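quick one before i forget lol
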Amino acid sequence: MGSIKVENVDFSYAERQILYDISLEANAGEVVGILGQNGCGKTTLLKCINRSLKTNSGDVLLDGENVGEMSRKNIAKKIAFVTQTTNITFAFTVFETVMMGRYACAGDEGNTNEKDLRAVYEAMKDTETLKFADRYINELSGGERKRVMIARALAQEPEILLLDEPTLHLDINHQFDLLELVRKLAREKNLLIMIVTHDLVFASRYCDRVMIIKDGKLHHLGSTKDIMIPDNIEETFYIETEVSEDSRFGINILLIGKSKNNSDDK
């Protein structure tokens, strides 16, 4: 199925409230972009969705089931999370790294079986990482390593894929490659993919819907074409843009420069 429903979620770190009354619904086959300034709560929202963080109030429903009542292992069978950075310090091969994604599916004995091997093979084929299966993860480029992390997530055979700044620190050509892959996975695997990103241009091209968070609150949510308009972008990011329709991408965003109403000047 692969549906997420967030209902009136609040979250705080100690005395500092990060999220205020966030609600949204998303379904299989969609790519949903989560946009906003640094510190607005984007990554925190992803962590609340997969219950890495426990909400102060409100609910997150996964295919109608409250994640607060699910075990970590059962959540991992449905949701895979790829973080911003990759911290693998030991010399694992790419194959071994992707196989780690099968942990949530392992039986009590933890033994690898034919189903595990097939899932890993399919994940590596889909991400075009089979060609360096025997290489060590710490020998790869940033773009290659990011693909391996997505392969590891896909090896879980999830219904939902959460990506936190997937293009961070990648060369521009690898950014395009990665987001083409993301859109392909959503379409061909019928995955719900939610992406935290700062990149307005990529969000406008690759996301079906976007949500904009400002100061921890849901400011806008809807189709990319309806939400990514100059007024919404300026009030959130304090930059001027021109937005035009594009037969290839739906819309195209041109970044003009710093807004005259930039909050840094206030």
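fyi The two ends are 47 Å apart (CA to CA).
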